[in-house]
Structures are given as structure tokens and as C-alpha cells.
Amino acid sequence: MMAVRTVAIVAPHYPPRIGGVERYAAQIASALTHEPDLKPVVLTTGETKFRTRVSVQDGVQIVRLGSWLRLSNTPLSPLWPFQVRRWLRKLGADVVNAHAPVPGLGDIAVAVSGKRPAVLTYHSGTMHKGGADTGLADWLIGRYERHILPRVFDRADVLVPVSPVALAAGRSGAIQITPGVDVDRFTPGPPASQRPRDLIYVGRIDRTSAWKGIDVLIRALAGLSDLPDVRLKLVGDGDALPDHLELAASLGVADRVESLGSLDGADLVEAVQSAAVLVLPSLTDAEAFGMVLLEAMACATPVVASSVGGPAFVLENGESGLLVPPGDPAALEKACRSLLEDTELADRMGASGRRRVEEQFAWPALTRRYAGLFRTLTV
């Protein structure tokens, strides 16, 4: 009889919360449900302060621990070292797959994994925010990345950087496994030349995520004033949304910016399929990959991104998308304009992006690597 091994996937956040780390962890969990000898369970955080909530989502048991407080975008609780150790034992975990960069839960899971093999998947380059009001946060992040994170890396049995710019890349024994995309779910919409001239941004809209560069995108939109039918759709929620809408009003483009809130499932696919260009204007290497780029490319939606971190790795500049210098509204405007006005270029890049994700970033081949890794570690 085949022995079934339990894999505890530990992530600071998990769907229905939307984000790249969340979707990556959920994809691994979903894939493992189809492996007869591997059983996924998930340990994550919830919205409650003290209570632990247990549920089943898409056939996977989810344990959501309470969070006493939040520092920036990071949930924390002094109880986690005890709770994580107890739940790993209670869930019968044979191997731990922790996800970071958010300090806290993933670090603790690696630290208390005991004799269980620990796989740490690291999703970011430096987490420095670089904003005008982030001096203290950046100081704390610097201390963490210099003094604590290397110890976490040393404690893990296997490091999995998601791209060449993730901080775990280049360390001895590291195995790169990039994010992927469900090419059967994210499918091509009409050719870009036949779509409304909408720009779309998908991602966090938090003040603590100012490095996402949404303000640069809004300034670029203002530079497209001679194309009055061009609109910007913001997909995502966060406390910075009012700030960005206020900026749009001050630049005279409030009527051309639409907030769609957080979208998932078919609604997200439809929004990406119907946009003329997806834009990811990140400012720093904290954008270690950019899963939304893959989702747009799978939908044959042309993409424009900053030449930082992951986007510079994901995109073939001039082939499957356009890269621009970070923080440069004029360059971003020019790249968006070229795709909005040159319909042949837009259609060609959309088709090229679809081919690229089919060949290199389809999820099944990537999750099979995880399944193989877990089997090796649990023998």
C-alpha cells in the first residue's frame, strides 16, 4: 500500500486574499490534491485576533491562525511559535513548505519544523520600500535581511527562489522554480487591436506597497491626453486607493480611472482578456517576479513593465512585452502609446506572450517539480 505523505504549506496569506504569493501557494496545494502519495494542508493567517479557524477549501484543509497585530503589511502573533509547532504535529506534517518574504509565519515554520524537511520558497528581492515615509520600515527591513534572514536560509533544507533576483537565488543548493499560469483558465481574448483602449493594473494598492508605482502609471495616463478614449482600470483594493484617485483628479484624469476592486476567478480573467495593455510599473526589485504578467501574456494581452527584478526576467523586451525604466512616467507613456496606436505590434506581442507562457510558464511542469522534490525529501 502506498504511503501518503502530508505536506504543510505555510504562507502568511492565502486565497481568497489576492496576491502573487497567495496564488503560488494555492497552486501547489491544488496540484498536490491530484498526487496519490502526497496530501496538502495549509497553515496561514486569518482576520481574527485570537481565534484559529479551520475550513476546507477546494479539497484542502486550511488552518488560519489569529494575528495579534500587523506591522506594515505583516501579520504577527507571539503565539505562533507554539501554535505552528502544535499544528504541524496535529496535521501529521511530514514536510514543511514555507513561503516568504513577509517576516513571521514562514520563518517560524522553518525554525520549528524539527526533524521534518523544510523547503523555503522565497518570493522577493530586497523588501526595501524606498518611499518618503518609510525610513524606519526600511531600517528594520535592512536589519532583518542582513541578520535574521540568512539564518532562516541556513536552517532550511532546500531554498526555492522564484526568480534570479529573489534573495535566496545563488545560495548553495538553491532550486529555482518560477511562478506559473493556468493556461487553460487564462486564455486569449480577442486580438488586442479589437479591444477597447483600456490599460489595466492588477495588484495591491496599499500605502505600504508604494513600490508598485501606481502613481507613475496615473501620470503616464495624464500624458495620453490626446487619446481621450484611453482609460485605466485598477484591479485590487487597499488603503492607497483614495490617494491614487485624488492624484488622478489633480491631473485632470479622474473620469478616465476606474476602480474595479478585487477580482478573482472568471471576473479577473475577463478583465485581463478585455484590456488593450496590462501595465506593471513597479519601482524596485521587491517585484521579484510579477505573476500578473504571465496571466496577461496567457490572455494574449500585451504588457508593459518596469525593467526591475522579475519583470526583466519574465519579459523578452520587444518580443513578448516592453520594458521601461522604473519611475519614468514619460517612458511608460511612450511604451503604452506604442501598443495602443500600433495595432500590428500589439497583436504580435500578445501572440508572442501566449507562446512564451505555454512553453516556459505553464503550471503543470512547475508543480511536478515540487511534487518530485517533496518525494525526495520524505523518503
The total of beta strands comes to 15
Low-confidence stretches: none
Strand order of the largest sheet: 3-4-2-1-7-8-9
Give the tally of structural domains: 2
Annotated CATH topology of the largest domain: Rossmann fold
* Estimated share of beta-strand residues: 15-25%
Which shape, going by the Cα principal axes?
A: globular
Q: Mind telling me the CATH superfamily name of the largest domain?
A: Glycogen Phosphorylase B
Roughly what percent helix? Answer: 25-40%
Helix/strand/pairing category:
alpha/beta
Give the end-to-end Cα distance, rounded to a whole number of Å. Answer: 15 Å
How big is the Rg? 21 Å
Largest sheet: 7 strands, mixed
Describe what you observe in this structure.
It is a single chain. This protein is of the alpha/beta class and 379 residues long. It has helices at residues 20-32, 80-90, 105-111, 135-155, 214-222, 241-250, 265-273, 291-298, 309-314, 329-341, 343-360, 363-378, and strands spanning 5-10, 38-45, 53-57, 60-65, 69-71, 74-76, 95-100, 118-122, 158-161, 198-202, 231-235, 257-261, 277-280, 303-306, 322-324. It is built from 12 helices and 15 strands. Strands 3-4-2-1-7-8-9 form a 7-stranded mixed beta sheet, sandwiched between helices. Strands 12-11-10-13-14-15 form a 6-stranded parallel beta sheet, sandwiched between helices.
